[in-house]
Write a structure and sequence with these properties.
Helix 1 packs antiparallel against helix 2. It is elongated, with a radius of gyration of 15 Å. The chain is mainly α. The longest helix has 34 residues. It has one domain. Keywords: Membrane, Transmembrane, Transmembrane helix.
Length: 64
Amino acid sequence: MKYFKIFEIAYLVVAIVAIVELVRVWSTDRTRAYIMLFFAIISIGMFFFRRYYRKRFSDRQNKK
């Protein structure tokens, strides 16, 4: 179960790095900034998706 939590945190780290890069290149390279925005949104979505299913899986195993 710890591996699932580590991957959740990894998605947050990717999102933070993408947001920092987004802010850094916004005024110089809009195309790259939009790509970073896309990665940030996907990473945050994957974080919540993974967290939801990890908790669901954990609850299912605790009921047995």
